[in-house]
Write a structure and sequence with these properties.
With 254 residues, this protein is α/β, with parallel strands linked by helices. The protein has 8 helices and 7 strands; from the N terminus they run E-H-E-H-E-H-E-H-E-H-E-H-H-H-E.
């Protein structure tokens, strides 16, 4: 298969596209011909990314300032994407937050915020795109979970771990229920990756200690993780649904 333009003619949404894995995924998919809606609360970041994509010969993305925890914002995300591109072939839910608070110190408000962004946001976005995908008879969803959802978080608190476990469970149930209607759903579980969410909450010394304990002796790069997302969206993974796909440098082996 020629991967250079294998997403040509397809369109989709990436939340959390302003930075990290979401940003890297957008660049990979745009290079391979996809028309994209770039959604993030950090609107200047997605505008800058859109300009970079256009400057590299990609299709002009639709940029939206979206709070994934808000029903009205998510509805607008789907409506404007359909208006711009006519269809929604895929969704990547990459929007997320990280907090390192110790279990005994987690306040209910912080717990609720973590669940709102990392779980409710995934649920709202997935539920919003499903009618369009059902009408098309096909669609692919990749929910960005985490190594935390397969084990426990090295970098985040218990609320982060709980939310990411829930994302995997939600994705598996979606896969079972929506598969007969032509929709695939998989959870992507990256380990430690050098994104702003990680570098802004850890010291270089802490990251060096974590990397030293990994079989590959390093953190992942967003560009590497983006390639896994592209695979999960592509026809090459056409028989995969309900999977929790690990990319963690060997941090977890089952």
């Amino acid at each position: 298969m020629d991967r250079n333009r294998d997403f040509q003619g397809s369109s989709g949404i990436i939340t959390g596209a302003g930075s990290g894995i979401g940003r890297a995924a957008a660049k990979v998919l745009a290079q391979r011909g996809a028309a994209l809606t770039l959604a993030d609360l950090a609107f200047p970041a997605v505008e800058e990314l859109a300009a970079e994509i256009e400057g590299s010969g990609g299709l002009k993305p639709l940029c939206l300032k979206i709070d994934v925890t808000g029903e009205a914002d998510v509805a607008r995300l789907v409506e404007e994407t359909r208006a711009a591109f006519g269809r929604i072939d895929f969704l990547v839910t990459s929007a997320g937050i990280l907090r390192r608070t110790a279990f005994a110190q987690i306040e209910p408000a912080e717990w609720d915020l973590m669940m709102a962004v990392n779980l409710r946001g995934v649920f709202l976005c997935c539920q919003a795109v499903v009618p369009a995908m059902i009408a098309q008879g096909q669609g692919v969803i990749v929910n960005v979970a985490s190594l935390a959802g397969r084990s426990t978080s090295i970098l985040g608190g218990a609320h982060y771990t709980a939310a990411k476990h829930a994302v995997i469970g939600l994705t598996r149930h979606m896969a079972r229920e929506l598969g007969p209607q032509g929709i695939r759903a998989n959870a992507f579980c990256p380990g430690g990756t050098l994104t702003p969410m990680v570098t802004d909450t850890t010291t270089p010394e802490a990251r060096a200690n974590i990397a030293a304990a990994l079989p590959l002796r390093r953190f992942g790069r967003p560009e590497e993780q983006a390639q896994v997302i592209a695979f999960l969206l592509s026809e090459e993974s056409g028989y995969m649904t309900g999977a929790a796909v690990d990319s963690n440098g060997g941090a977890l082996m089952l």
